Amino acid sequence: MFRDEKLVGYVLVGDIDKAGMFTAFIKFEMALAGEAKDKLINAGPEVFLWPEKLFDETWNPAPAKAAR
Fold it and tell me: Does 68 reside within a domain?
């Protein structure tokens, strides 16, 4: 289910291995339009649909500065 180009809900039947990926699209409120939305609907979620900046900030955050 989409609202304003964002995934807001889903129902999985059968293979539920990628449920966490669908949940991440909802949690991080990622906008999906055009080809990316079609890929999510027809082929399922994949990391390559994530915006590069969000992926870097979420999975490769800059190290915290040491307290002085």
Answer: no
Whole-model pTM: value is 0.63
User: How far is it, in rounded angstroms, from Cα 44 to Cα 10?
Assistant: 11
What would the pLDDT profile of 14-48 be if each residue is shown by its tens digit?
A: 888 878 888 888 888 888 888 878 888 887 777 66
Segments forming the whole domain that contains residue 41: 2-59
Asked whether residue 10 is assigned to any structural domain, the reply reads: yes
Number of separate domains in the chain: 1
Q: Is 57 helix (H, G, I), strand (E, B) or coil?
A: helix
